[in-house]
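Justification of computing resources. Each target in the renewal requires a structure prediction run like the one illustrated here; the chain below, 1417 residues long, is used simply to show the kind of job we budget for.
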Amino acid sequence: MAGAGGGALRELLAGRARKWKSTFGSTAELRAAVLSLLDRHQNLSDLLLEVEGSVKPAGEGGREHQELSSESFIVSVLQEQASRLGVPTAVLAAKNAVTKIEQICQSSVSPSQAPLLNLDQRESLSCLLRTVKDLLENNVFSRSHFCQEIWKMKDLPVLEAVWHLHRNGITGLGELLESADGRAVEEWLCSSLCALCERAEGSPQDAEHAGRVLSDFAIVFLQNGFQPSELGRKLEFKKVPHICHAVLQRMLTWVLDAVGKEKEEDVSTLQAMRFWLNVFDVSIYKSAVHPDSLQQFFRHTLTEVLTYNPLLKVSDAIHKQREWSFTRTCSLLTALYRKLFVAFSAKESICQLQRVLETHEVNWQHVLSCVSTLVVCQAEAEPLFKDLLSHLLIKAFENYDMENMITAFLIARQAALEGPAVFMPYSEWFKASFGNASSHHGSSKKALVFLFEFLSELVPFEVAPYLKVHIMYPPFVPTKHRSVLLEYITLAKTRLADLKVAIEDMGLYEDLSSTHDSVQPQGQALRDVEKALQIFENTRKIPTSVIEASIFRRPYYTSWFLPALLRPRVLPKAPDTRMAFIDSLKRADKIPSNLYSTYIQACRARKEKMLQDESKVEPNHSKEPAEQLKAELAALRVLIVDQAKHEDVPAQIAVISDRLSNVLGHNSDENEAAILNSRIQVNVFDPQLEPCHQSVVDLLLTSFCQNLIAASYFNPPDRQGPCLSLFVKMICGHRSLIPALLGRLCQLIYHQGPSLNDAHILGLAAFMIHLCESRSLIPEIEADFGISQPVAEKVLSISEFWSCLLVCRTEESLSFCTRFCTAAVSYLLCKFSSFSCDDLCALVPPSLVKKLQYFVPRLSLEARGITSKEDKADLVWSSLTCPSLNYRRASLCLWKQARFQELLKEKAFQLSFREWLLLELEMYPEKDVLSASERQDFHYWAIYQWYLPAPSASGGCDGDLEKACGVIIDCILDFSQRLDLGSCGQLKSVSPDIHCKLQERLKDRHRGSALGEQLWRQQELLLHRRILVGLPASTLIVTCRKGKKTVLDCEDFFHYVNSELKNISSRGYALSYGITAHFFRGLLNASLDCEESAEGVNDVLTTCQTKCPIVLFSAVLWWPRLEPLLCSQWKRLFGAPLPEELERLRECQSSAMGFLSSGRVFPLSGPPWISAAFLHCTVQQQSPRGRERNALKRLGTDTEQLLVSLLFFSLMDLISAKIAPKEGVDFQTSLEWALEILQCLEERGISWPLLFLSAEEGSRKYSVLHSAASDRHSRLLPVAFYSLTPGFHHKLLTREHVFLYVALNLYIQLLQLFVEGKDLPQPEQFRRQGLGLESDTALGYDLPCLCCVPQADPLEVISAARRFLLGAIPRCPAKSFGNVGLLLEACEKLDPEVGAALQHFSQPAAAMEVDEELFLF
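Resulting structure tokens:
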């Protein structure tokens, strides 16, 4: 009835419903009729499939029959049948449900689908389960009887059917298992699960269903089989825990049985087992399983794996453990280990391994493969294994326990098999553990005898490489016990002889801890020849090891080494390295004459045979290992770009390492003990690589760069995981490849750097960071920089080697080095963003950061001084990886990073004055990116503004000019004698002379427009300033006789400053630091000619107060940098206290700082504007904000001029922020400070509007301030005035009758600025015209017009001012209009509306019309 029968029932019910009204009188009569019908033709099992919705009667007459559902009929039928049979209805329903399930499960067409249902079966089962749910809700279904009946089926149910019962809440898997026979259900579950795993390899739909079934079953198995004891067990489940535990155990055994015979198993079977390993995915359990249960399950599984079938003896492990390395271990086992380790930390995994070793008999193959997997896949495992080995050795020697000793040796050897990238070589561990008097065996003779007894017991089972390690690096033995050591060496040599390996035939460069079988002397000799040729090629000297072998190891040298070297071949026309080496040995009498003659004759015969055969003799190298390496590298890239697959990267890198060993040959395998402590020789001047090595290195470098670029496309470096770091460590583990790697890097960076593209530079820069990270794996480097040097070789670390490769002498090399260093440091800061500065110091060569300190200010004016700091370093990396790379912009962006600035504070990264000089001396002026004048500007800034005032702790000169001169002289003398890196050794000019400036001054001027004249004048002034600072400082001061005294005359200089120099200052009220410091240095030097030097200085500074106040304001602004310079110079010249005026400046500075920081009273001594200047500059230099308001309130009462002067300086900064935003003055900060001062003035009732009028128009008491302001700042005062409108008090109009006049005057000036400058181009246009003025004082803000203000729209400023005036004029009292008539004409001409308002309200009657408060305020 599931199909046609179900439809018949529905038709029957529907048809009957239409006739209820005429045939049946009630629902009860209808129910009785239907039951009678079904009693004759019923099939209860099929009836359970009827789960359709209710059938409602048609027509209005059926209202009394509210609902008639199929479920109610099913319940009625079941009840009728149950009463007839005398059984409970729930029991009958359960039996019929089981019958139907059996029918559904048996309807499978293909037996291969045994664990899963087909589509029709799922649909039928779904219908059945919906009916059963309804029966459960009506309490007419017995779960217990259902569970019992399930196991009575002839054929047990399909696994998926049981899963549906569990999933839909019919009966849980636990209830089903509890009611079953334990053994039978275990068999059924295990066979069904195995079949399910095999079925999962079918279609994607089958795999999806199988995955859901397996994960739900696994959750039940863990919940019951590994329930934490503190939670207690469910009382109704007595069998379930045992069944679940047993099933998991049998399935694990199914997998482990296949581990030992992986090659014999069918591929599909192995795939099925891999599918079962999904049970060990931690993610499937989430919150469904208690964490303790999960830990218990994983610990139990790891213990079972390690102790499974412990048949192998220790002797087998010693002999076979080379075959149990990570890449050779069964992939099923390594996959299982890796899944188990996810649940534990590395420390927990090793602790569990230790517990198992101490308490169980173990399977050594599984234990050692577990060690390999841990060291390869867990980055934290190496130090933990070292601790474990130390613990085992301590216990062994405490109790003289052989078991702990053999365990330690096996673990150390196994970990070492995976290469030095993940664990130290065995030879290193053996030397570290037993090579000195403080070792464990050095405490007593008993301990010494115990060690050698142990080593002796190992001898019969040892392989040759480990015996060679023990002989070449024997344990430390006191002299009186040398017989014990000699006895062991004799025994070990006997074993080597049995293995047909003579210690006398050991190679010159033999790998003493190779993972491979011992190489016969012939093969080892060939490798020794290749190594000797490599050393000879780099040094052009016969290797010491070859000379020693010719004397002390004569049998090996004559029997094996020379025949391998003198193999006949066709000699090249031009002598190659091998021929040159043979000739050197011949000249040194290291090759017998007869042997040499035989070699030459054999070579000639080989050539004749080649000509006869018309064929060349070429070595037949198989390309298969290289192709395998390429394939594995490609597979690695797929894993690196997918963050979800990063956990598979360590295993893939281990496979790549194995493939790389095959390509290079076993001599270059990991752990080359023979070259472990030997230096690497690199010929920087002319690096030569073997073609085979170069191709391998290029393949690895290309792979690294591609991986980096591909990974960066999806994630920034800090989210790329340790993949690239592990890759570089793996490369460093192949010791014989390192010379070729460094040689290739030398070719790429030192010789071909400027020709590299951006992707190459990014990749190599990141590679350099990871190479420094792996510096412990790289020996010292002997770098040969060419035969022209007095000392041809230098011993360098890897960091120093990088510094030698990055040299800057020309524009091209400077560009390359800037790009490279920027990329490297940006990658460092982003990759290791969580590292402290101390940790970062160990990862990057200090020279790279120092070079950036040299490059960036040299190329960017914006970097010369204090700059704003950004927060995120990944912005720099993203700008580097973008196709349109601008290296100057990227380097400046890096320079502004707060993290980079923090790095520069580290002692190791600070570029000293001496280092800066040496870098600058390296540059070729004729090939420099800077012009002569630009270079002099850079020199002047670096020397006078950076290094001279800087403290010696950060590489500066403490303001001591004598000290700076000493450093310069020493550097020039040192540089003239240096020949490093092939420098010519000749002293180059480091700065242009004055003739260069004069030639620039005579360039054709751009005549014609007013703008052209102004621009030309700006150029001239900048050149004049350069000339001034290039001349001796004392030339600025004139000494003359006045009566009997020598006096200092600065009249001409003051006039030049007031008329010209102040107009190229961006700060408005102060000159640049350079010209300021130059003047004061000249003043102190010139005072030497005065009888009273201090008095001469005082007189000049007193004159400054009236004749040239901008000089004093400049001194105030730059005082923190100027003070140490002046103090040092005065002390050096006179050794006396400072002159009174200089001392007064020091006291003012101290008073201002004390007033702001500690709340002291601010004394008013001297001119108030000097005190105001110090107070203003100190406020600007202190970063914390918010205390200024309180400070202003603490000022005394007689502070009118002080506060007005403060307002003036704040206005100057406000204007500077508009016209020179890159000068470090913030507009908003300046505006807030000005408004604070304005509010203080208003609260004290101090008049201030006259400050905005010139000395001729307003009060002359502000003439000093106005005389110090530059012309452009004075012309832009209207902008500053109308920026202050939010702070104007509502009583201002009535209190200050001159206010309206000032406001109108400034508004007219504002309009005139706009009218005069309306046709002028914007600052961006000036830069596009290519005028070559890169100085920050050159042009961009030099024109005093609103349209040149980059941060404001001129029309908006004028509109705001206009609205203010139109609102203010009606509120002004009649007295305010007294003198506005002078402005009326100009106002009506420029703005008729404002002029009309002014004309109207200036009448007395009109002025009285408005008395309400000005809404504007």
